[in-house]
Amino acid sequence: MQPQLLPFELKRSEKPTPAARPPRRRRPFVLLAIILGSIVLLHLIAFTHTADPSKPIRNCLDIVRYNNYSQFAIATQQNEKIGNVQLVDQLIPGQTTVVVPIVPSVDAGTPEQLLDLYVYSCAVSDNHPEIALQFKQQHLVNATFTVTQAHTLDVSELDPLQSTDTNTSTPFQRMVNREYTWNNGAFVQTSFPGLYPVTSRVEAQDLQTQSNQGRPFQWLDPLITTSQMAKDLLHWNAGTFSAKLLTQSTKEAHVLLTQRTQHFTVQVTLQRLIQPDENGLWFVTQAQSSHMSIDTFPLQSPISSPTTIQGTMMPTPGHNTITMFDHMLSPLPTQVSPTFALQSHRNYTGSVFYTNTIPNQPGLLLIERIPKGSDLSAQQAAGQLLLTSVLLD
Fold this sequence. Notes:
- This protein is mainly beta.
- The protein contains 4 helices and 21 strands.
- The longest helix is centred in the first third of the chain and has 24 residues, at 28-51.
């Protein structure tokens, strides 16, 4: 169900008054005063019902639809007002929610920019429906919000470190996009399944929309998408690697990526995450060598530096590198080199140090096992790598 725009205050329909006797000609002002007084009274009754929902409220839908949200004093400054309130289904499974944005009160003729954002739903206590605050974000700068196709909430803010003329290897990444999903009774930040060419769902939706409007994108081909990822993220030079399509269905494709210089063999999975048909764009959802794995459970919440990683890999001769990427797919600076310990039984542990200036932004973690000596054969030392998504605290 698409979000419905609700008026800030919904008034009850006024009931027609019984027909009055023809007024006496000598008392027109008295009749006019009676009519005006009746209109004021009806307006006062309607306003009272809206401001005090306890009288007309019969169920949860009524309370989120007709509630007067100004009673919560969420617009606290003179330059603030409540923007377009949206009634949304499926943001919380089985419930109707209302998204209440606080925007600048001055209309500059531009799209509304968020200052604060609140999400309310209904809670039933003693068989009586009550409004419950489920989510809030405050002190946002140049922000917007979107209810995504996956029934999640995206809050986007302008990256303070980027100017409007910043060149990026992938488009539409000047916004920091944070996606929230309902899980175990609360909204929690979640990672977008796609690793490349973008790191957020709203960017992927934007790419797909522009593609449907006729803009040519290379992401329509899984082989080209994989090859471009090898250049942008792995920094492999053209002519040193090859990409072979293994399988492809309507929704998913598998590509074997081979780097000949250092004997890397990487299995890449791509999916049409936004539009699962022949016109859908491909997004890389997994890229790793067959002998390397990582425990992703500690990475499901926002992580901070230093962070500890662990998993398994083939104990071949070589050294390891660890790279953190920000939401623009740019490497984050590191002040201390990562530590890495590889046991003989293939388990590894490592600590990653990095500098992150944008809290809770989506990013990527790349682990590489670089073979020792470029003259070794693939049987003697094969390169290994793994790429996964993270949330950077």
